[in-house]
Amino acid sequence: EIRVPAPVERIIGQLNEHGYEAYIVGGCVRDMLLNREPGDWDITTSALPGQVKELFHRTVDTGIQHGTVTVMVGKEGYEVTTFRVDGEYEDGRHPKSVAFTPNLTEDLKRRDFTINAMAYNKATGFVDEFGGVEDLRRGIIRCVGEPMDRFTEDALRILRAIRFSAQLGFEIEERTLEAIRVIAPNLAKVSKERVQVELTKLLCSAHPERIALVYKTGISMYVSGTFHEIYGAGMPGTVNAPEDYSGVRTEENSPAASGGLSGPSPIPAIPVSIPTQKHLRWAAFLRNATPDQAFTVLKDLKLDNDTISRVKTLVDLLGQPLTPEKPALRRVMSRIEPALYDDLLDLKEALLPFGVPETGDDLRRARALSGEIRRDGDCLDLKSLAVKGRDVMDAGVKPGKAVGETLAALLELVLEDPSRNTRDYLLQHLK
Length: 431
Ligand code: ATP
Ligand code: MG
Known about the structure:
CATH class of the largest domain: Mainly Alpha
Strand content: 5-15%
Strand order of the largest sheet: 3-4-5-2-1-8-9
Bound molecules: adenosine-5'-triphosphate, magnesium ion
CATH architecture of the largest domain: Orthogonal Bundle
Mean pLDDT: 91
Shape: elongated
Number of domains: 4
Distance between the termini: 75 Å
């Protein structure tokens, strides 16, 4: 059983003593009921931001315009937000306007899903006005209020619904899923960074295969053109959309019957044995794309350059068989960082049951040989080549591009056979 941390209890106690209501709210209440460790503890209160600031020594105005004050306890910060009703959302996180309310229920009503719209404090116990406990028990993601309205207010909620479904292994309730299909085009208005954060959380969840829902609900084309192109053939929004998306709803093809996952999935398996690092999960997901497509998708979604280049390299190398022979392995190892090479082997191993271009024996052999290559300290890059640019120029190669090309050719010889990595052999070869 997860308990409310002492500083959180103290903050709530302090607010109560001064006559204000205060509760923990949202994700932490959901996670507590699921016996999961909450990521953060959010507090909601009837006190206005100025009143919160008067009660605590150290506060930071982290989101004062939205009613949020961070109360510092030691090095930890706890967000305390005044009960509020929201205007329209501009970026999925921050509404354009907020109005404070003295009423907890009003605050809970603005929240996205029933399981995220519960509050708790010791004196009152759980406040659950929208059936969140029941939906948690049944494993259902359901909008608070009218789904069409809620997704129209903030289209990011569309991706949040799918992301929570993947993190918790929950089904999306039928009317909520239907509204997702209808409001899908609004996702085009959501910032790519916010879309990326949700997709990354989805891929790094316990059910990454649920990214299929992004295609099956018809939102993939609003994520990015290339994203849609990769696995979207025959999906909603394309000319050959399958029957069960034609709008005729029967009991069998009702989206809720299978969480919207009915019909064949073009998404390759993403085994959860793959560690939850974003470059690994993205690479597994994008492995049937071309490296250029992978690059474009991640660029569109504003991922950091480091992740983009790692994923592109992994997608490229996942598609090519690793030849279990030292020269071929040295060539691959010379192209990428040691850590990324290890990632490549781990990925290929995790994907073995789902089809990779090599056999399990090849992979085991490759792993053993790469271990030897490292232990023996075989030359894998220009840094450890026995001759430098200077030597090449002394041997008569004109300064400029030719020097680099010559060094690359010499490295190629050494990758083939590391015993060639001596000044004598390489200078001899230059002549
Ligand atoms: P996580 O585990 O990802 O932190 P969370 O539920 O805590 O999940 P947050 O983004 O931290 O999600 O938001 C905290 C709470 O604020 C949510 O539980 C929900 O009640 C509310 N909320 C967040 N984003 C939205 C939104 N776009 N629309 C409506 N309510 C939202
Ligand atoms: Mg949270």
